[in-house]
Amino acid sequence: VAIDGFPLPTFRMEPMQRGEVIKSIRSWTIRDDDILLATAPKSGTHWAHEILSMLHRGKAETISERFTLLEATTEQEFASAPSPRVLTSHLPLRLLPDNAISKIKIVLVLRNPKDLVVSKYHHMLGMRSYDYTGAFKHFLQWFLEDKLPYGSWFQYVREMEAIMDTEPDRICMVHYEDLKQNGIEQIKKIAQFLSVDADDQFCQAIYDCCSFENMAVKKLPPKDLQDKIWKPGCSFYRKGIIGDWKTHFTVAESEMFDEILAQRMTGSKLKFRFSDRS
Ligand code: A3P
């Protein structure tokens, strides 16, 4: 299904039905204490959601419950969820509930786009529903041409940056790479932004509980569901590292990517970190 010319995954419903639901999301009723967790796919959505969930629950404890993306829910499920709700979505601003952009707090997670495209490649290779087996070089081209599910990463990031420019107090930006390397500080920053009491010990406990190793074991769906969704050995928890792009990109691809990134992000103040060191 495509909306505004960009392709969307179909999730649990038939494509046409899902398309109708997504078109209706703009009119869904937002509550003042809702929080939007906004991410482009493969930026660390599951990780960030787990952190937000622990901050809200006031407990550094992994629960088996998993989140559903806003675009994969129904209006009824959305309306009946208890407050405070974390609305987790990859949708671009123009498809989100109207008030989400002008009213509620937004936690935005960004990831360097080279690791993101590699992660997305494995996502599509691994998920049975895509039935995909292509080569990385073609996949990379699709990414650069905005042809992958959810459309243009560049546009998504630029639109989010525009909110940061106009309303910096309503948006908390977290980089995946900072969460990896400076996680406790980042968790403190998010807690402060959400006005949640969280001392150093609690932030450390959340950080430990949300480690890749812990989540990769404890946050998997039940085995039958996991096997239905993913090919053997695949899941949302793949490597969880910075710099895996180096094992996928050729030097020429990396240079081309840098050039296109520079062009398409002209005027942007965002800085992405592509390795552990820089
Ligand atoms: P990789 O494919 O590079 O391993 P999303 O949740 O947005 O789909 O993002 C998935 C990516 O985040 C995957 O990246 C996944 O391994 C990584 N990830 C998930 N949980 C993580 C965690 N606790 N720590 C670090 N990375 C994590």
UniProtKB/TrEMBL annotation:
Keywords assigned: Transferase
Domain of life: Eukaryota
Residue stretches spanning the membrane: none
GO molecular function: sulfotransferase activity
Family annotation (InterPro entries): P-loop_NTPase, Sulfotransferase_dom
Domain (Sulfotransferase) ranges: 32-268
Family named by the database record: Belongs to the sulfotransferase 1 family.
Protein name: Sulfotransferase domain-containing protein
The organism of origin for this protein: Dreissena polymorpha
Lineage of producing organism: Eukaryota, Metazoa, Spiralia, Lophotrochozoa, Mollusca
